[in-house]
Amino acid sequence: MGSKNRKESSSTKRGPSKFEIVEKAQKRARRVCHFIYLSFNIVYYGHDYLYIHTT
Predict the structure, then answer these.
(1) How far apart are CA 24 and CA 40, in angstroms?
(2) Residue 55 DSSP code
(3) Domain ranges of the chain
(4) What is the Cα–Cα distance from 15 to 26, expressed in whole angstroms?
(5) Confidence of residue 50 (pLDDT cuts 50, 70, 90)
(6) In whole angstroms, what is the distance from residue 49 CA to residue 55 CA?
(7) Average pLDDT of the segment spanning 3-19
(8) SS3 for 1?
(9) Mean pLDDT of the region 8-27
């Protein structure tokens, strides 16, 4: 039981920075993915709209 607690405390000592980096990366990735998704939708549906109205 004591060894487990020691392991947890050591992991949490160097954990936060790693976790922060991961969280930041996830936020950035999510923003980028959202931007790509939005631009793709605009291009795709915009093209569809133009195609429908020009023919």
Answers:
(1) 24
(2) -
(3) 22-55
(4) 16
(5) confident
(6) 10
(7) 62
(8) coil
(9) 76
